[in-house]
Structure to design on (227 residues):
């Protein structure tokens, strides 16, 4: 069969596919869509469990499920014949998305959802589940937080010039670094960074008890900046 004959047969099959629907084809479509839905729900659960951002977006997490199912549907559509695949590529190429993804790790989940849907749509179920297992292992390995890796930003507001020797004594054996120091007429703002477990957070009480300290602000810092 030549390439011209393949195109001609594909064109004829494109009309037949839209008019006939047997039980085997219907079962295959429903089964693939259900598998993609299950994998999408798995991605949703993993994203929710290992989320490390500031505010959890439930709508974005639900988008991961829909993205998996839609990718499977597109793959099922373009796998029928060449004509539909060319038309689908042309239609999707003009779509532009304007939503900015600020969290780099969210792109990983989006691409995972898309590739999982494509894989299930191509009847490669084992590859989809093995890929999910590998992704879960990678995310689990790189999101484990050790106690010594907990990073905090501490902001001090003092009256007049701060006594850094007293601040140093309040930290004790806990190591810290001065990130910024803003001097005003009657007030000083100092930003300090340190790493510690929950037991080391008692340093805030020691700093607050100093006579020149007006208030203490403690912020947990995950090491990511977003513009």
């Amino acid at each position: 069969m030549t390439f011209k004959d393949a195109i001609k047969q594909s064109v004829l099959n494109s009309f037949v596919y839209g008019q006939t629907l047997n039980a085997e084809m219907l079962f295959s479509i429903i089964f693939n869509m259900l598998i993609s839905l299950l994998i999408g729900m798995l991605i949703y659960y993993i994203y929710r469990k290992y989320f490390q951002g500031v505010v959890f977006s439930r709508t974005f997490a639900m988008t991961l499920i829909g993205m998996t199912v839609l990718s499977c549907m597109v793959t099922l559509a373009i796998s029928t014949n060449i004509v539909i695949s060319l038309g689908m590529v042309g239609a999707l190429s003009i779509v532009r998305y304007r939503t900015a993804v600020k969290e780099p790790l969210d792109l990983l989940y989006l691409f995972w959802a898309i590739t999982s849907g494509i894989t299930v749509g191509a009847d490669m179920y084992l590859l989809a589940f093995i890929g999910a297992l590998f992704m879960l292992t990678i995310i689990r390995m790189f999101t484990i937080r050790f106690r010594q890796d907990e990073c905090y930003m501490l902001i001090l507001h003092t009256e007049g010039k701060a006594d850094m020797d007293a601040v140093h004594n309040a930290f004790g054996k806990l190591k810290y670094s001065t990130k910024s120091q803003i001097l005003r007429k009657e007030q000083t703002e100092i930003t300090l960074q340190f790493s510690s477990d929950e037991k080391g957070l008692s340093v805030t009480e020691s700093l607050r008890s100093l006579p020149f300290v007006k208030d203490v602000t403690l912020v947990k810092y995950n090491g990511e900046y977003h513009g």
In short: Residues 147-221 form a domain with the Alpha-Beta Plaits fold (CATH 3.30.70.1150).
